[in-house]
Specification:
Helix content is about 45%, strand content about 15%. Strands 3-2-1-4-5-6-7 form a 7-stranded parallel beta sheet, with helices on both faces. Strands 10-9-8-11-12-13 form a 6-stranded parallel beta sheet, with helices on both faces. The radius of gyration is 21 Å and the shape is globular. The structure holds uridine-diphosphate-N-acetylglucosamine. The site of uridine-diphosphate-N-acetylglucosamine has 24 residues, from helix 2, helix 13 and helix 14.
Length: about 375
């Protein structure tokens, strides 16, 4: 058997037998699984696949949530999608043979999520999918395929909203495999958002004033893989006439460097990716968000900020028409952004009164309760035989 990449405790594999395994691989998965890890009655075995491997995209996030380092690191970052999936399934299969988890929990729509679902299925281990049922209906996105596979292989689909639960039932997933929990990102934001007095030094550090800057981040292939499109996005950001704080994802940084794209145009201020606490402080105080991130579409609804979503589609229709405007890839960014800055369609004061569709901040507990119920059932029945 290949070395599954043990990185620390548990020292004895016997300690691991029968515990829940949490598989994650990227920055947003740490953010959204932290509330579940904290709510589970027994500490799970955390396995990091290494899909995001820089310290500012992984280690710093464990620290921010006060979580222990992962018990295992598989180190499968920096390779293509097919190889990443194959390698992760094979490494997880070895590891599951060694640690014999009672269940596998994964979140969202990354390659790590899909690999976890396939590896759990191959070992007939109950699989739980957190943030289940999101659909962009856009088959060009690898994430859409990752979500569909993970949902259909899962014994328990934890859907954040009614909309995502309906997506699951419309694909034939029976109601007894679905639970509506809210999105754990609300818990994460509530847990780590600094108080207003703690935000002031962070704004000062980045040289911006409350309500007078834009926060932006881009990494999706359709925006950054084409150098001309990336250039257009930066030029559009520079037209917003406010400072634009731009933490640059490593993928975007590499493409900009290779394609000689100047990121610091006009008032655009490129930075390294930020830790979650600093990022939340800026998010809570900015005038506008312009980004292609999935999780940010949820976080803006908690912190009541407007967002220009630079994507052809979204798997989060719940916030369209309130917090988020969808613009085509590389188009209409500055014109839509300027409208929001002028208070259209809603001012910040108006958004302050709009509730988040993603829950009340108690989703981690709901997920943990549902997982515990499945554990009780699967101790008596084989979940694979459920309808
Ligand atoms: C992607 C998926 C999302 C899924 C998630 C986990 C899409 C478009 N995105 O996340 O559906 O839930 O994987 O499976 O399908 N942040 C920082 N510092 C920064 C920049 C961002 O802390 O400098 C934080 C944001 O607050 C947010 C998270 O990182 O919590 C977003 O990470 P990102 O890499 O943009 O991934 P997503 O697109 O959200």
């Amino acid at each position: 058997m290949s070395d599954p990449g043990k990185a620390g405790p548990p020292e004895s594999t016997n300690d691991s037998h029968g515990r829940i395994a949490i598989v994650l691989g990227t920055r947003p998965e740490i953010v959204k699984l932290a509330p579940v890890i904290r709510a589970l009655p027994e500490p799970p075995i955390v396995i990091h696949t290494g899909q995001h491997y820089d310290s500012n995209m992984a280690g710093a996030f464990f620290d921010a949530f006060g979580l222990d380092e992962p018990a295992y690191r598989l180190g499968i970052g920096g390779i293509g999608r097919g190889q990443q999936l194959g390698s992760a399934v094979s490494r997880l299969d070895d590891l599951f043979e060694e640690i014999r988890p009672s269940a596998v929990v994964a979140q969202g729509d990354t390659n790590s999520t899909m690999a976890a679902a396939i590896a759990a299925n191959a070992r007939s281990t109950p699989m739980i999918h957190v943030e289940s049922g999101l659909r962009s209906h856009d088959r060009r996105m690898p994430e859409e395929h990752n979500r569909v596979v993970a949902d259909h292989l899962s014994d328990l689909c934890l859907a954040p909203t009614d909309t995502s639960a309906r997506n699951l039932t419309s694909e034939g997933i029976p109601l007894d495999r679905i639970e509506i929990t809210g999105n754990t990102v609300v818990d994460a934001v509530q847990h780590l958002l600094p108080e207003p007095s703690e935000r002031a030094p962070i704004l000062e550090k980045y040289g911006v004033a409350s309500g007078s800057f834009v926060l932006s981040t881009f990494h999706r292939p359709e925006n950054v893989d084409d150098v001309e499109r990336l250039r257009t996005i930066i030029a559009e950001l520079a037209e917003l006439e406010l400072p634009v704080v731009l933490p640059v994802h490593p993928r975007t940084r590499a493409i900009a460097a290779n394609g000689a794209v100047t990121l610091n145009q006009g008032e655009v201020r490129p930075l390294d990716p930020l830790g979650y606490v600093e990022f939340l402080a800026l998010l809570a105080e900015c005038a506008l968000v312009v980004a292609d991130s999935g999780g940010l579409q949820e976080e803006v609804s908690v912190l009541k900020r407007p967002m220009v979503v630079v994507r052809n589609s979204t798997e989060r229709p719940e916030v369209l028409g309130t917090f988020c405007s969808l613009v085509g890839v590389g188009r209409d960014i500055s014109s839509t952004g300027r409208k929001w800055l002028a208070g259209e369609p809603f001012s910040l004061e108006e958004l302050a009164g709009v509730p988040s569709p993603f829950g009340d901040g108690d989703s981690g507990r709901r997920c943990a309760d549902a997982i515990n119920r499945l554990m009780v059932i699967s101790a008596h029945f084989d979940p694979a035989t459920k309808s």
